[in-house]
Amino acid sequence: MKGKMKVQNFYEPMVMKLEEHDIPQIADNEVLVKVKAVGICGSDISYYYGHSPLDTPDGKGPMYLGHEASGVVAEVGSIPKKLGLFNEGDRVALNPVQQCNACPACMRGEFNTCSHVETIGVSVNGCFAEYVKVKYTHVYKIPDEVSFEDAALAEPLACATHAVQRLDVQLGQTVVVYGTGGIGLMQVQLAKAAGAGKVIVVARKDYGLGKALECGATHVINNTDTDSKYYAADVAARVAEINNGEKAPRAIVATSNMDALQDALKVTGACSTIVYFGLPGPDDLLQVPVLEAIQSERTLKFAWLAPLVWDNVFAVIASGQVNLSPIITNRFSLEDAEKGIVFMKEAKEPKVKGVILFD
User: Fold this and answer.
1) Residues 114-123 pLDDT 10s
2) How confident is the model at residue 305 (pLDDT cuts 50, 70, 90)?
3) Residues in domain Enoyl reductase (ER) (predicted)?
4) Shortest CA distance to 344 belongs to which of 322, 327, 323, 319?
5) N or C: which end of the chain has fewer CB within 10 A?
6) CB under 8 Å to 234, separation ≥6 — which residues?
7) Using CA atoms, how far apart are residues 11 and 242, in angstroms rounded to an integer?
8) Residues β-bridged to residue 139
9) What is the DSSP letter of 50?
């Protein structure tokens, strides 16, 4: 497909320019997608502000950011066309983490640990552009019931789903969720859908806790603001009070805050499982009382990316088990993408998730 397109081209920290570039030309194993919606991820914000390097050879731009996206198939490469997998006009979402499918990790289905991965918007041009090219193995049709806006959040929802699957929630169990960002609010709903009886959310701000209640949390705890009606000085004691005098059997940490990562060990008890999802700094260390952990048979797990969950993702959106409308709080145009990134980082007003819409 020939022609020009608008892009937001990221060059270096705090420098992003709206430009006109050629529409990318696809290879035989690729699909060209006209982007309809793309989420602003925390990693996009980190790249823009220079807190994290890109996964390019030198860690720098120029490159189009954006990896949480949905759109419409505009052109189909010869391989997926021969297989009859896609047609122009198909509504799709993208899995940006394009593993090699040939290394030992991929052979085991551990796609999230592939060492030859190519990631849209991180190592190759992404979705802050009117068109993006994607390997056909990473383009998924979306149900009619799923909007482009919701489908743009399929990738973070896939990551949240993988983490909750690793939590191994049993029917009726109490789950403690730390964090009320987009992922945390998704995990509240996924824990309920998995059979949790009570979902207790712990966070520092009442706005996020209100969102958690809107997303189905049964109880919320503010662990910071003493003026909050949800405040508890001793989070572990409050969790036990809610859970009939017992510590929680399950906890999931959807924040990078080290106090939260550490606190999860205090609110959970014998034979409990904790899943750590939020990304702390490279030098942060978790302190585990090993003897107590052994004698109480604790299970500590860690979740990274989203292997083998994408069919579940679209199903939980279409069924209504996960409602993304409380999570999407801000919308921007492609022209205002840079302003949107700055807003999501710096604006004082309450917010959760920003999405760039193309129509």
Assistant:
1) 999 999 999 9
2) very high
3) 15-356
4) 327
5) C
6) none
7) 50
8) 94
9) T
Describe the crossing of helices 42-49 and 337-346 by its angle, rounded to 10 degrees.
100
- Neighbouring C-beta atoms of residue 144, cutoff 10 Å: 8
Q: Which amino acid is at 128?
A: F
CA of residue 250 relative to chain centroid, distance: 20
**For 275-285, how does the pLDDT look when each residue is reduced to its tens digit (9 = 90+)?**
999 999 999 99
| Distance of alpha carbon 291 from the chain centroid | 34
Strands 299-302 and 328-332: unpaired
In CATH terms, 166-302 corresponds, of 1.10.357.10, 3.40.50.720, 3.40.190.170, 1.20.1530.20, to: 3.40.50.720
CATH topology of domain 4-153+327-357: Quinone Oxidoreductase; Chain A, domain 1 (3.90.180)
Mean pLDDT for 166-180 is: 98
Give ∠ CA 283-285-286 in degrees, rounded to 5: 160
Query: Where in the chain are the domains?
Result: 4-153+327-357, 166-302
Peptide bond into 62 cis (omega under 30): yes
How far apart (Å, rounded) are the C-alpha atoms in residues 266 and 260? 10
pLDDT tens-digit map of 218-271: 999 999 999 999 999 999 999 999 999 999 999 999 999 999 999 999 999 999
CA atoms within 13 A on the CB side of 187: 35
**Do the two domains 4-153+327-357 and 166-302 of this chain adopt the same fold?**
no
Residue 359's pLDDT band (cuts 50, 70, 90): confident
What phi-psi label fits residue 313: left (phi over 0), alpha (psi between -120 and 50 degrees) or beta?
A: alpha
Signed CA dihedral, 323, 182, 159, 288: sign only:
negative
